[in-house]
Amino acid sequence: MRERLTARVVLLDRQSRILLLKGRLPSSPEGPSFWFTVGGGLEDGEGLAEAAAREVVEETGLTDVVLGPVLWRDEQILEDLHGERRLFRQQYVLGRTAGGPISRVGWLDHEHAFTDDVRWWTLDELRQTRDVVYPAGLAELLTDVLAGHVAAEPLLIATPDGPVRPVPRAI
Asked: pTM higher than 0.70, yes or no?
């Protein structure tokens, strides 16, 4: 099975809101939509930080982003843009910005076609939504980040089912 290395960005504004995009799988254009973080695949020769920075600019137009440590990692078998099942190795990087309006100028055709919405979310809104949000348990995961409990090493492990779960630790 082919792998896809992916940089995801937990992008927070000055009000501690997280930016999420809402979209559908290209292989299921009429299927259910879900919310997800900014990010995408690493290009040839590109490192995690470069990919994360590039994806933020392409998907948001924001250029004042400061990238922090890797918060979480997960691995899941998902469909790519062409409906091929691949092993996605995702790393979630903390990003901070002043915020502001989002530009879709840098979006690719498939991003325009399959992305329905983009918005800033508060932690309370994430806790209350009935919409599907990835990664699973984002509100719980974000609570530690907003409280400043950010370590240099990831604090999550992947379960056999795919979703990430917190690793117990002393703070």
From this structure: yes
